[in-house]
Amino acid sequence: MVKEHISVEPRIIWQDSANAVGQEAARIVADQLACKPDSSIVFPTGKTPLPLYEALRGMTQIDWSSSQLFQLDEYLPPESGKLPEYETFADFMHTQLWEHVDGQKHYIKDYLQAPATYEQMVSRNNGPDLVILGIGSNGHVAFNEPGSQPDSPTRVINLAPETLRSNFAGLSPDKCPHQAMTLGLKAILQAKKVLLLATGVAKHDILAKAFNPSMPPSLDCPASWLKLHPNTLILTDFQVSFQVD
Ligand code: GLP
User: Fold this and answer.
1) pTM of the model
2) Phi/psi class of residue 157: alpha, beta or left (left: φ > 0; alpha: ψ in -120 to 50)?
3) What is the pLDDT of residues 72-94, one digit of tens each?
């Protein structure tokens, strides 16, 4: 049973390109670290945040030295034991940002046997300062797949069929992961600030579904639980039109 919740409508700000979304997101990260140098920040993978990481790599004035940097999620290796053909999220984060900046880096794969410990580290000091998210085509955030409750813990989860199709199109199934470890919605909703990035028109419909003001949050679209969060900002490179029922 899903309990009654009080929803708030997140702010949605439109930028004129995916690069502009990345630059605005980078400015928000820079402001966060300028205001609170020891901020805890959780970073996403995917194509959407690439302009953010490119912008951050260019902002050499940022002082990352006291920061606490976390990953949102990571695939578990394929059960077949065959070498994966995909890039791990640890490698992605390292290459895109973490090898270029100071700060204490926390890789979620190091806590596979202790997800609660990872969550405690992310959530110490009353929740992470900033969680940055993308959105999956089925509405997942991190790997909180449809069916995830708003108080779901950090855990290992089976990847939804749609996620496997969209993330591993063309790869042989025995070289693909079928599970991932994800930060839970509970820790995400504890963040002091959430920044959700959505670029490319392919993300329009799922975003419009998740944040339709006339629809309550629901289990079938995990991103919609962000409506329970009092400080979520969504940056897009498209105008969002909501269907009014
Ligand atoms: C993966 C990640 C999500 C990410 C999503 C969208 O499934 N677990 O955190 O938001 O991909 O990726 P992209 O930005 O490539 O569309």
Assistant:
1) 0.95
2) beta
3) 999 998 877 777 778 899 999 99
